[in-house]
Every structure is written in C-alpha cells, then in structure tokens.
Amino acid sequence: MKRLPNAWRYLITVSLLALLGIAILVQIIRIQNSPEVAGVINQGNFIWKDFFPPRGEIYDRHGNLLAGNKTVYEIGLDLTANPDMPTILLALQMSGIDLNEVNYRISQVTATAQYIVLDDFVSANKADNLMTLQKAAHGDPTGKNLDAIYFKAHYGRSYPENSLASNVLGFVTEDNHGYMGVEEKYDNILAGIPLRLLVPADPRRATEYPTIPPGQTIILTIDREIQAAVEKILDQALEYTHASSGTIVVMDPRTGEILAMSSTPRLNLNDYQSIKTVFPGETPFNRAISQAYEPGSVAKILTMAGALDSGAVKPETITFVPQYIVVGGFRIFNWDGGAWGNQDMTGCLANSLNVCLAWVADREMGSASFYSYMQRFGLGHATGVDLAQETSGRLKLPGDGDWTPVELGTNSYGQGVSATPLQMVMAASALANDGQMVYPHVLYAQIQDGKQSNTKTQIVGVPVSAATAHTISEMLTNSLEIESSAARVPGYRIAGKTGTAQIPISGGGYDQSNVNASFIGWGPVDDPRFIVYVWLEKPQSNRAASVVAAPIFKQVVEKLVVLLDIPPDAVRRQMIGQ
Amino acid sequence: MNNVTQIVQKVRQAPWRVQRQWIGVFLLGLVLMAMVAGIYLNVTVRATLAGREIIGLQAFITTNQRVNADLETQLAGLISIEAMQHRADNLGFQPANPDDITYVAVPGFVPQSAVDMSTPNNQPVTPVILPEYTESWFDYFLNQQVSSPGGQP
Lengths: 578, 153
Description:
- The complex is a heterodimer.
- Helices cover 37% and strands 23% of the residues of chain A.
- Chain A is built from 21 helices and 22 strands.
- In chain A, the strands form seven sheets. In chain A, strands 2, 3, 4, 5, 9, 17 and 18 form a seven-stranded mixed beta sheet that branches. A five-stranded antiparallel beta sheet of chain A has the order 11-10-22-21-20, sandwiched between helices. Chain A has a two-stranded antiparallel sheet with strand order 1-8.
- In chain A, α12 runs parallel beside α14, α12 (300-310) crosses α15 (367-376) and α12 (300-310) packs across α18.
- Helices cover 63% and strands 0% of the residues of chain B.
- The radius of gyration of chain B is 39 Å and the shape is rod-shaped.
- Chains A and B meet through α1, β3, β5, α9 and β17 of A and α2 and α3 of B.
C-alpha cells in the first residue's frame, strides 16, 4: 500500500476546515445563549409602543354625529439633522402655526435632546401647508430645507355642530380627558383603554398587534332638531328680554329622556380653550343642572299636589285670601300686596296667590306633611342625571339649624328653597306621568361590540297618586285658560305655571330690582309627550314671568308639536277613534 | 475466495481510500450544512419580508381607521344642523308652523323612533391562520392519513 505524497496536506486542510466549522458553530451557540446578548435583544430589539384607541363617538337620538374624531398632527424636529431654524420658523409661521407655542417649546429643550415636539394638535390644513413647503424646499442646495421636520398624525376630538348642545356635551382636552357634561360623565367608556406594549423591532419577530377596542360609541336622548330650535328661541329671548342668562329644558315625562337642554352662555367646543373667556368667574357650564335658584311660584304646583294628595284640600275647596297671612310670626303677602277674596284652589294657582299656598301648607297640611311631600318630589337631592357637575339645591327641614317656622310659608310658594331647573322638571314629571317620577337622563344607548343596549326608564318614586296627578294637571290647564296665559298653544291643552321669584342677596334679604322668571308646563294634558322648563335670570324688559317666560314656553311648544309629530288634540282624538 | 479477501483487505488498508472516505464524509456534512444554512437564510428572509409587510399593513389599517373617522366627522360637519338650515333657506324653504301641517291618518304608519346602530353581524372578526403554520410534522402526516381515503380504518 502506497501513501499519497501530499496526503498530510489534505489532512491538515481538512482538519483546519473542520476546526473552523466547529469553532463557528460553537461561537454561534455561545452568542445566542449568552446573557449579554439576551439583554441586548430585550433592550434593543424590542420597543415600547403606545396604542391609543379612538375616542368613542357621540350621536344624537337620530344618529347625527355630535362628537367625533379628526386627524391632527404632532410636528417634531430632528435636532441631529442640523436644522436651519430661521427657515423652519418662517415656514411654521407661513403655515399658520402659532410661534409663541413653538418658541416656548424650543426654550424648554435640553442640551442632550435629539428630537423635540414643536407643536401638537395642529390641524390638517396647517400641517398640509407645512408639508407643501417641506416638499418645495426639499434638496435645497443652500441647506435651507425643512427635511428635519417630522409629522405624526393622530386622533383629535371634533364637534361638527360646534356649539350645539355644548352645555350637555362638554369637551375633551389634549390629554384625552373629558370635562363637563357627557364627555366627563362617560369619560371612562368613551376614552377606551390605552395599551402600552413591548413590540419587537426585529421584523422577523413581527406579530399581529392585539386589537385595541375603541372607546364605546354612545347615543344621547338629545334630539338635534329640538336642541337647535330651543337654542335659537333662547338666544332670541335673551335679546328682547335682556335677561342675564337663560335656561330651557325639554324632557319626555314618560321616559325621563332629555330631548333638549340649553343654557347660556354656550361654548364652541372646537375652541374649548376660550372657556375662561366665555364662562368668566364662577359662571356655571350648564345652569340646568349646576345652578340652583329659588324657583318661586312654579313650586306651587308641588305644594298643591301634596295638599291634594294628602286630602288637605280639594280643587273646589274655597278659602278667603286676605292681603296677608302670618306664618311663624312673619307676614306673607300676595304678589300684588292685595286681598283676593274667596278663591278655590284652581283660582289660587291661576292667580298665583302666595297667601293661599302658605295657608294650604301651614294651616291645612302642616310642616311634617308638607316637607314629606317636598322630599318625595326630590327637592334637596340631586337628580343623579348622567351629566357632570350637578348640584342638589337646598331644602331646609324642620330641625335644621337654620330653619325657621316662616319658611314653611315661604317654601310653599318656592322662596327660601333652592332647586335646579332639572330638579323641578323631575319633580313635575310625576304630575305629568300618572304620579310616577322618572329619572332624567341623556344617555339613550351604548354601542359595544356592535350591540346596542338602550337605557331603560327608571321610576325613582311615586310622590302622588295618579288621580292627584290628573287633578293637578287639569287645574293647571284650566288656570292657563282662566288667566288667558301667553303660554297657551291653539289646538292643544297644556298644563303650566309661571314663577316670578325674588333673588336672595348675600348678607340676607332679596334683590329689589331683579327677579327670576320661570315657566313649567307639559302637554298634551291627556297624553303628555313633553315637559318644558323655562328660566330667565334677571329679565329687564318686564319682571313678570307671565310676560317674559310664558311666550318662550309657547314658542318651544309650537316647535315641539311639529318636530315630535303631535297633532292637535281634536285631530288626535279623531285619529284614535278611527 | 482468496482473491476476494485480498481485494477487500487491499481496499480497507489503502490509506488514500480511508482519507478519501473521510474527506467525502466531511464534504457531505459541509454540503448538508450549506443546504441547511441556505434554507435557514431563505426562511429568515421570507419571514423578515412577511414581518415588514405585517407592520406595513398594520400601519395602513391604523391610518385608514383614522382617515375614516376624519371623513366621517367632515361629513357630519357638511350636514350639520346649521349647514342644512342654511341650505334649506337658500332653497326657499321655511320652518313649518303648527298651522301649516295637515295630519292624515295613514294605516300602518310607524312614527320615527330613535336610531338603532347595532351592526347586523355581531360576530367578531378573527384572523384565519392556516393549519400549515401551526401544526407539527406529526400532525401534518396524521391529517394526511386521516384525510386520504385509504387511510381510514
């Protein structure tokens, strides 16, 4: 056997190659399993990524969008790209971007920063302008380009109806938090749940991102058409009455669904930053729920309902109404300071006689019965409406430190007790709804996973019997006829009551030059579809609610019967009979 | 017989034959390694491209959702109550008053009710992943056996 002469060369070469291959394999295995590399992979190949779900949309009861989302931009600057600041600032200014904000942000930059946000929530129009400029300046040989600018699109809140129903909706700030109204009350479900994930930067490890459920869409009970009509009527009313503020609430007394709610001032929600200008000082965002006041004679309907329900009086009960009555050692006068002779209970309501109602509460009902009914009507307690910033008003009770016996008399006609317009609407809903008081709400439905779950009607109490409710409705309807009220709507039987209330001033006593004018009413009386509350604060054209508030009520009802398709009573009966 | 034994011994004992065998075995291993490395590289590249595509598609989906929301809001602005009233005014329409309306009884008429925004199909959409991407070799062969007509017991 003869050995090849260069066999050792082959042997060495093969051995070296084998050793090299083994060394490479060993090195690969070592690197892949070393803790250092694992750490590098965890830190460098994975990045934290924030997923912000789009905020839930808000619709009115007919599916019109009231609050949605739009595209806005974060505009950033790459400081490592040696940006030409004068050119960039000029471009920003030409695009309509506020340089004050930009300069402030630039002034906050640290020496080690590599990237800064020049401005955020920039509108698509302004960002488009800047993109156009960037494109035009791209590759400028002098270096005066805008290549260091980066755009990052994201969601921003938008209100296509601007100020419509702003008192109800509230607004969302740039940190995606809702304030006031529905946006604050339902912030948790509207905002959704942001998610922060460690995602692989290595595309080989790319996996499908988890589905981030968007914020829930909600549908409000608000009717856009009615809301717009009410706001227009209110604005016109403030013009000719020169009232300092106004509030109108429209609710379905059968369900508690608030169809419209407006108070002044109103805010363009797309410009929520101007809130301090529009609502100076302590101005309530929504007076219908956040400003309690002494409602005055509109509260007489509750006193009379309690008296009728307790059996203290009947509609035909006749009493002599003198010039004044003494309650708790104090004289209580009628609104005109005069005596009104014999009056039945309908006459007492029609003529809004304080002395008569004080007599009913003090002499016929007694404080225990009277305050029991007032509490059953919900006075002194917040309604729990699903809107942020609700206040409860105050109903002083016997036994409270600051309650005095005269207040039984004054409370009977709505003075010395405070309530919000919505509290009065909720209380009156019992009278319009067979004695059943409904929970007022603005949430009609929530949409989740494609399913709509509607809010159910809630009865929060039955302060009076159905018979009492029908009786008081009839009395109030007749009283409107008796006084030939400006609130009457031809063809429709409407129950209603005016309220001209004095305004308490700090330090005690009442403002002698200003009043609150209110009106509450519902209809059609035999099948109520709406309850309307009107409140004008400090009207200047006339002090009497029958002159300034009643016509506004009429205007609202005239719109409602059209928008809610409510035929005149005679036509409706004829249709039912067919 | 002796001749055969001698030949076998010669072949076994020839060093160059032993060396060639070793070289052959090594080269075979090298070729196998190269093949595995090639397959690994191919799979890695394809996985990378697929990953890039996934990331791109996810960004595309996100962008589309945002654009859709934006367009929906723009549309709502175009049909806002103010815009619609303005258009109605321009077209010569006037708001109806109660006196302007004549009511007619229409059998079967259902008054307008609040909106129902439920989506017809409430089944959540789940991504379909083919079994080829999840099953093992064992599962694959088992499924092949089960699915083939002859494989049934």
